[in-house]
Design a protein that fits this description.
CATH superfamily: Carbon-nitrogen hydrolase
CATH architecture: 4-Layer Sandwich
Low-confidence stretches: none
Order of helices and strands: EEHEEEEEH
CATH class: Alpha Beta
Shape: flat
Number of domains: 1
Largest sheet: 4 strands, mixed
Strand order of the largest sheet: 1-3-6-7
Mean pLDDT: 91
Number of strands: 7
Radius of gyration: 18 Å
Strand content: 15-25%
Helix content: 10-25%
């Protein structure tokens, strides 16, 4: 996205777990989601604003226990550092000052975009890699 001129990434999500999942599984799922979102900031050298639903949505079919959305909206800086994190269980508004000029400084320190190996990208446009 940064290569296309983005200065900030917004990731609105509605993700949660099955309420029947045990606490350890719930923690693993949420931590993986946070890690992936923070990695978008690092990979692009841009701040990322991530918002996620809270609350329970029941399954009208009765086939499952529904989804418990875990909230935990946050803002990460261009190195993936957490600038602000919202509550897990209740809706909350975050107000965060974001220094967009810092992205250029970070890209000079960590030149991921400059040093990428575009010669190795050919297989990315294929569904399956041919041998």
């Amino acid at each position: 996205m940064a290569l296309a001129g983005a200065e900030l990434l917004l990731y609105p999500t509605a993700i949660g777990w099955d309420p029947r999942d045990d606490a350890a599984e719930q923690t693993r799922q949420r931590e993986a989601w946070i890690t992936v979102q923070r990695a978008h900031a690092v990979a692009n050298g841009l701040p990322v604003v991530v918002c996620n639903r809270t609350g329970l949505e029941t399954d009208p079919s009765g086939q499952s226990s529904g989804s418990r959305f875990w909230g935990t909206s946050f803002v990460a800086g261009p190195q993936g550092e957490l600038l602000a994190t919202a509550n897990c269980d209740e809706p909350e508004i975050l107000v965060v000052d974001i220094d967009l000029a810092r992205s250029e400084q970070v890209r000079r320190i960590w030149p991921y975009l400059r040093d990428r190996r575009i010669d190795a990208y050919g297989d990315l446009v294929k569904r399956y890699r041919d041998e």
